[in-house]
Amino acid sequence: MRANYRMQRLFVGDALAPSATFEVKPEQAHYLANVLRLGTGAEILVFNGRDGEWRAEIAAVKKKSVSLTVREQTRPQSPHPDLVYCFAPLKQGRLDYMVQKAVEMGAGVLQPVLTQHTQVLKLGLSRLEANVIEAAEQCGILAVPELREPLKLDRLLADWDTDRALIFCDEAAETNGPLQILRSVESKRLGLLVGPEGGFSEDERRQLRALPFVTAIPLGPRILRADTAAVAALAVIQASIGDWC
Length: 245
What we know:
This protein is α/β, with parallel strands linked by helices. The protein has helices at residues 26-35, 92-104, 125-138, 153-159, 179-183, 202-209, 226-240, and strands at residues 9-11, 21-23, 43-47, 53-61, 66-75, 83-87, 107-114, 146-147, 151-152, 165-169, 190-194, 214-217. Strands 6, 7, 8, 9, 10, 11 and 12 form a seven-stranded parallel β-sheet that branches. A five-stranded mixed β-sheet has the order 1-3-4-5-2. The chain starts with 8 loop residues before the first strand and ends in a 5-residue tail after the last helix.
């Protein structure tokens, strides 16, 4: 069942069941009451990543709080996406964009990876989590991706589940087309690795290419910025061997 894009959607942490009543967070209360100017009796959609999506009614609007009463389920909980998206952190604006688009494109896990050319070594995970939730709210997503702590590339590869194919975007690939390469990937469990703005080092490329569970793909004849490469890679994977098929 597709999402209802005409109604406001809100991510909440509370359990969702018929007649459940709870107060939303203060910033959500401000948004509902002062930005959207919704009053008592107005309806919105709520989800928590566990219990599906529900229609809820604004039960009370006070000066600094808004309470909701859950009415009925509109969509059952969808399975959690299995795609693991691994990315080198970028500068803040481009990182925000990349995380939002990864959520929209069906990533189930967001794994920051520190490479030799990574320029941003400290991440504001709370800000990234806010971007994850905002993207899920806006795009009708029910299964909110997991955001993990950053790992160095060596640790990521050492701990990788070898039954899961890891596809990495190789800016130094000799060909332009990724489709034929992707169609040769046998595993249905997928991971994607996108490097930093400076690309992977030669040592990292050799390390990745030497691993049997890793598949290198090109992304066309043009040099793409890291955030553009992320969207392009996610799209071509989903369209060829992912959940668009």
